[in-house]
Amino acid sequence: MSGKKLGIIATKGTLDWAYPPFILASTAAALGYETQIFFTFYGLQLVRKDLNLKVSPLGNPGMPMPMAMDKWFPVLGTALPGMEAVMTSMMKAKMKSKGVASIEELRELCIEAEVKMVGCQMTVDLFDFTQDNFIDGLEYGGAATFFEFAGETDVCLYI
Amino acid sequence: MADFDQELDASGLNCPLPILRAKKTLAGMDTGQVLRIVATDPGSVKDFEAFAKQTGNELMDSGEEGGKFVFRIKKA
């Protein structure tokens, strides 16, 4: 065991941005890292009980559409009603066909591997969430709570 | 006699699942026992090297068999 520590700040709440924190955290845990993720602002979406993450094609010009969607729907087309749902289901289907785990599965693996998850209490209050909205076992704290752990980490990422 | 104690079929799974499943399977094995892993993710070749280096479990060998990647890891 390396005895190393990894800290991650997760700030994004879309399906595509949900992968990096959960993949890195679960892998680090498997490598023996003590791992903690601090979920703040839109990152809180990743620890909701009812996960309903979507891909946002709007204003995301770097996102390649594996199914050549961009050819059929140029930039303005991504603003059409329903486009987000279409892209989200296409992305999910693509991921499944490539053997990429679902976010639910990766989050469960993180919990199993004892990755500590901390929700930002300030953001919870800001968006009028209640602790009932979030998974059991989520701890709550602020920036100071995170720094207590972050200051001892070997790797610390802002995602 | 088989040259491993347990086998894990991670075919069709992608990063990071093969590593996570291997870690979980190894947790239920005894020191010195050998786990054979079959994977189809090309990234797993480098990943299992890195996994062995960082966890201390010994990567005995790795190779290709019928288009799949095969690893043997001895639990430390």
List the helices and strands and how they pair.
The complex is a heterodimer of chains A (159) and B (76).
Chain A: E1 5-10, H1 15-30, E2 34-39, H2 69-72, H3 83-97, H4 103-112, E3 116-120, H5 121-126, E4 139-141, H6 143-150, E5 155-158
Parallel strand pairs in A: 1-2, 1-5, 2-3, 3-4
Helix pairs in contact in A: 1-4
Chain B: E1 6-10, H1 17-27, E2 34-39, H2 44-55, E3 58-65, E4 68-74
Question: What features would you describe in this structure?
Answer:
The complex is a heterodimer of chains A (159) and B (76). Chain A is of the alpha/beta class and 159 residues long. Chain A contains six helices and five strands. By secondary structure, chain B is of the alpha+beta class. Chain B has two helices and four strands; from the N terminus they run βαβαββ. The relative contact order of chain B is 0.26. The mean pLDDT of chain B is 94. Classes of the chains: A alpha/beta (159), B alpha+beta (76).
What are the defining features of this structure?
heterodimer; A: 159 residues; alpha/beta; five-stranded parallel β-sheet; 6 helices; 5 strands; 15% strand; globular; B: 76 residues; alpha+beta; four-stranded mixed β-sheet
Instruction: Classify the beta-strand content of chain B into a percent band.
Output: 25-35%
Computed Rg of chain B: 11 Å
Count of DSSP-assigned helices of chain A: 6
Order of helices and strands of chain A: EHEHHHEHEHE
Radius of gyration of chain A: 17 Å
Distance between the termini of chain B: 22 Å
Structural class of chain A: alpha/beta
Number of strands of chain A: 5
Biggest pleated-sheet summary of chain B: 4 strands, mixed
Would you identify the regions of chain A where 5 or more consecutive residues have pLDDT less than 50?
none
Largest interface: A-B, 14 and 16 residues
Kindly report the average pLDDT value of chain B. Answer: 94
Strand content of chain A: 15-25%
Total beta strand runs of chain B: 4
Distance between the termini of chain A: 26 Å
Give the oligomeric state.
heterodimer
The geometry of chain A reads as globular
Helix content of chain A: 25-40%
* Spatial strand order of the main sheet of chain B: 1-2-4-3
Overall pLDDT of chain A: 89
Structural shape of chain B: globular
